[in-house]
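Journal club prep — side note

Before the paper discussion, L.F. wants everyone to see what a predicted structure for a comparable chain looks like in token form. Sequence:
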Amino acid sequence: MVNFTPGDVKIDGVNIHYYRSGGSNRVGQKPPFILLHGATDDGLCWSRTAKDLAERYDVIMPDAQGHGHSDRLNAGFSFKSHTRQVAGLVKELGLKKPIIMGHSMGAGTTSNVAVEYPTLPKAIILEDPAWGMMPPTTGNDGAAQKNHEQIKAYQTAVAKMSIEDIKAECRKTNPTWPEYEVETWAASRKLWDNALFDNMPLTDIPYEVIITKIQCPTLLIIAENGIVSRETAEKAAKLWKSKVLFKWVYIKGAGHSIRREQYADYKKAVDEFLKELG
């Protein structure tokens, strides 16, 4: 049984809450593994993945600012704040060369950390990053802006429901999700700052530039009905400049929340990549 210990760190005056498995293995301290959630989720939305990883790793699941039990957004917030806060978390907890895995918004933060702090991560794993969903030109892109407004309206409406109604909504819209994913998703809907969507876009740098600046081994996981298309993944592979490993995996029968919908295939992709890292 894995027990996650809650904790808090102050980074640039902002309280960041996290959950950690900790522990040692037979040969010493387990290597660190950070999991970064998507927009309107929180750290505990990684619980299943974290429990599997905790056999081999010291797993840390932070609540991003504006989510979970971390501080709400402030006047100085931008999505660059998340990047600085992850770097600050690593420093405050004394972590050495963590592997960082992120989903959606968290995948964007993960890639930004790899660019801004190139010596910090050992490797990164990106679960369907929001590439092209809310691009730097959002203000001039009618389709992207409309998509943004639809997501904002839906998430805001869900947050106003009771927990039981949120669970029912989740089961209706995601009928293949296991019940524990429904539980953590529903709980997180009540804990995000509704100012979040006022701070879009997620990045001011297109993925075509980001991918050329990453220097650590990288796994990109995409899905049949996700955001990142095969064409985008193929383009990213062609743009890759580093001599270290870049790999992308396509998973059938899944949407944006890949691990919630096709966990066995997702886990296989992650495990194979970790094995290649050594």
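L.F.'s comment for the group: The longest helix spans residues 142-159. Keep this in mind when we get to the figures.
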